[in-house]
UniProtKB/TrEMBL annotation:
GO terms for biological process: adherens junction organization; calcium-dependent cell-cell adhesion via plasma membrane cell adhesion molecules; cell migration; cell morphogenesis; cell-cell adhesion mediated by cadherin; cell-cell junction assembly; homophilic cell adhesion via plasma membrane adhesion molecules. Keywords: Calcium, Cell adhesion, Cell membrane, Cleavage on pair of basic residues, Glycoprotein, Membrane, Metal-binding, Phosphoprotein, Repeat, Signal, Transmembrane, Transmembrane helix. Its main location: membrane. InterPro entries: Cadherin, Cadherin-like_dom, Cadherin-like_sf, Cadherin_CS, Cadherin_Y-type_LIR, Catenin-bd_sf. The gene is Cdh12. It is found in: Cell membrane. One of its GO terms (cellular component) is adherens junction. It comes from Ploceus nigricollis. This is Cadherin-12. PANTHER family: CADHERIN-12, CADHERIN-23. SMART domains: CA.
Amino acid sequence: QLHSDLDKGVGTVKYTLSGDGAGTVFTIDETTGDIHAIRSLDREEKPFYTLRAQAVDVDTKKPLEPESEFIIKVQDINDNEPKFLDGPYVASVPEMSPVGAYVLQVKATDADDPTYGNSARVVYSILQGQPYFSIDPKTGVIRTALPNMDREVKEQYQVLIQAKDMGGQLGGLAGTTTVNITLTDVNDNPPRFPKSIFHLKVPETSHVGSAIGRIRAVDPDFGKNAEIEYNIVPGDGGNLFDITTDEYTQEGVIKLKKPLDFETKKAYTFKVEASNLHLDHRFHSVGPFKDTATVKINVLDMDEPPVFSKPMYTMEVYEDTPVGTIIGAVTAQDLDAGSSSVRYFMDWKSDVDSYFTVDATEGTIATNELLDRESTAQYNFSIIASKVSNPLLTSKVNVIINVLDVNEFPPEISVPYETSVCENAKPGQVIQTITAVDKDLSPAGQRFSFKLSSEASNKPNFTVHDYRNNTAGIETRRNGYSRRQQELYFLPVVIEDSSYPVQSSTNTLTIRVCRCDSDGTIQSCNVEAIFLPVGLSTGALIAILLCIVILLVIVVLYVALRRQKKKDTLMTSKEDIRDNVIHYDDEGGGEEDTQAFDIGALRNPKVIEDNKIRRDIKPDTLRFTRHRPPAEDNTDIRDFINQRLQENDVDPSAPPYDSLATYAYEGNGSVAESLSSIDSVTTEADQDYDYLSDWGPRFKILADMFGEESYNPDKVT
């Protein structure tokens, strides 16, 4: 109840309530100030409420006092039972554990207020699972209550645990959970054979390594504790058999180590021991964890195939042995009681090429082809033997024939050597070590000898030193070599073997002379390097070559430009001056005319034959002969032409034209007048062209045209 000192009880004061749960959980009487709960309260849902109250004047609606705050606390009652939040539980404990062995701890939670009364005080107890397990009432720890609980007797246990509040007193609330406890296995049981003797029947034809029977020892343990190892106790017959463990069934698998023969022995007896692999020292006192049983094996007689006297035959034969030569024999026999004869034949799958044959009755092997060891050094094939009484029973044996070598190939140098010698080499210096190979199969201790051929023995350049160990050294005999004089030397070396008959071959070594430094390190073996200056690096040589190439290009361009300039001065028009040759009315000179005016030769003077006289140079042996004295007016012109002719003869850049110079026409009115002979006032009679006949056959036609005897003024054009 709320009450204000200003409330006189006449109804002038009104009480109001606000805060947590006001109007929903709690309500207030406006006149008396009594606070009531209008619904059930749950401490676990909300343990307290914070409210605010105020007294207000009924008429003015104004507060009579400041607002006050108060807390309503919900008092707890025992209305929640304990609960196992992690249940149901699963636990395990090893079998044969002692009393009090820890199993598991359970925990129950009570939602009631632990600070008020005993509502949250929990006590644990076992409702189901005694007398095997016990539980601590306060901590909830579960422990074993009986000793030597055996998994093989009972493996699973279900324990019902109760948690009760109010300290376990009458009227308290309780909750339960289930704990499933499994006893885990320990190796507390040895393996045991269900019977002491095992009988097995095995055919004598059983293959080595095959399983001939199974025995089993029983171990009630589980997992690795039940793993069993089987061993044969040393004794009678134990060396013919072996036993292993099947990891899935834990059975002992007996296998055959050696072949059985009914005719030799019909029965075997031995003992087998079974023991655990993983032992537990806590149970050694129980006794030995192993057991023993006897195994008796009876061998069954079977009709067997023939048996060869050897598991494999090895024979030898020389190559080139004549066809049909017997090189050996195989033997097989029937070991059964009723002995049968045997027939032999080749296994065609192993001797496809039929190099050998076998006698069907005697088993002798003979050659069927000529053999070559260098082609095939060894033959491997099979021979099959079958019983005449039962051809289906066959056996096979492997035959290896080694082809022996006959010395028919000479030894040769093993590899092509690249031999070099320094120019500054000294006498006796080893420049190459050589070895030899022989295509023949070299016998043990095969020796090769090395020497120079007879024609090279007298030359003072190189010699061969045989080291007597199938190698030889090439040694120098001179003090220095010169690449300029001889770059390559060819040295014939004779190699002989030590087999019979002796075979030999002559092998030629090529020795190159190289430039070396003072330490004998080769610097260059190229021919071009002979003329290069010593001491220049590769980069410097490349730079020099580039400079030379650039200079050559400049010279070629200069010569080409100069020729082009001279050619322009020789041309009076766009047409070549050779096209403006004087035309004659004659029919031509036949083949001589073709030879005289070979335009192709004029265009490319390089194709002129060596035995022909150049057309553009006056022969040195020619002399000018004149039948009449020249006119005085032509002396200067003749001297001028001769001077220019001589200048062009010695000029290497002059083109090979018949007309070496042209004279420009100066036009009418010139004081000097024209220098051309065409417009000259001098008559043809004043000119003497007899010297043209001295210039050779190329100028014969001109000499005939302008000579004294053929001159006719009426025909001049």
